[in-house]
């Protein structure tokens, strides 16, 4: 390799990331979670290691946004890292941010960064959502 070519593990990790997102969108959480290592750790907030924490996060997300759909806009892989940006769309049908359901369709950006182990499992995850755009669309904040 000349330093500009992707390593085979990068391609595998990117494929695993894409497959996990497809399983999430299909509501096949067990298949999605199969891409996460048993000792997976969410790094975006204090959480102990364990795949059950990412399961709780994903289940909670779907409970709050039952029709949530992530459309991947960009995915970049390098070595043991994969980063993606998705456009998230959903209908506000449950209590969110203290706001009763409005029935509004919302759209926001969602970024996630994953570190993979040598076997191709996700071992660490950082998540970031454009909560300001979401709050504005729900009428919690005025545009500035």
Helix and strand composition category: alpha+beta
Q: Could you give a short account of the major beta sheet?
A: 5 strands, mixed
Q: Architecture, according to CATH?
A: Roll
Count of the domains: 1
Number of helices: 4
DSSP strand content: 25-35%
Q: Could you name the CATH topology?
A: Nuclear Transport Factor 2, Chain: A
Rg over CA atoms: 16 Å
Mean of residue pLDDT values: 92
Principal-axis shape equals: globular
Beta strand count = 5
Distance between the termini: 49 Å
CATH class, named Alpha Beta
Overall helicity: 25-40%
Low-confidence segments, given as residue ranges, are none
Side-by-side strand order of the widest sheet: 1-5-4-3-2
Structure report:
- This protein has a 5-stranded mixed β-sheet.
- The chain has 4 helices and 5 strands; from the N terminus they run H-H-E-H-E-E-E-E-H.
- The mean pLDDT is 92.
- It has 144 residues and is of the alpha+beta class.
- The chain has one domain: Nuclear Transport Factor 2, Chain: A (Roll), CATH 3.10.450.
Tell me the layout of helices and strands.
Blueprint lengths: L7 H18 L3 H5 L2 E7 L8 H14 L4 E10 L2 E11 L13 E12 L5 E8 L1 H7 L7
Parallel strand pairs: 1-5
Antiparallel strand pairs: 2-3, 3-4, 4-5
Summary keywords:
33% strand; 144 residues; 31% helix; Nuclear Transport Factor 2, Chain: A; 4 helices; alpha+beta
TL;DR of this structure?
By secondary structure, the protein is an alpha+beta fold.
């Amino acid at each position: 390799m000349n330093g500009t070519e992707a390593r085979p593990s990068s391609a595998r990790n990117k494929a695993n990331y894409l497959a996990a997102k497809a399983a999430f969108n299909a509501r096949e959480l067990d298949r999605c979670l199969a891409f996460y290592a048993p000792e997976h750790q969410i790094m975006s907030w204090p959480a102990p290691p364990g795949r059950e924490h990412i399961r709780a996060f994903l289940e909670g997300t779907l409970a709050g946004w039952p029709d949530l759909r992530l459309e991947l806009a960009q995915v970049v892989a390098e070595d043991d890292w994969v980063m993606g940006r998705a456009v998230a769309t959903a209908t506000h049908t449950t209590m969110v941010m203290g706001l009763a359901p409005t029935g509004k369709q919302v759209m926001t950006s969602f970024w996630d960064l994953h570190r993979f182990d040598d076997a191709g499992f996700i071992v660490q995850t950082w998540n970031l959502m454009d909560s300001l755009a979401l709050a504005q669309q729900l009428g919690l904040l005025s545009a500035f």
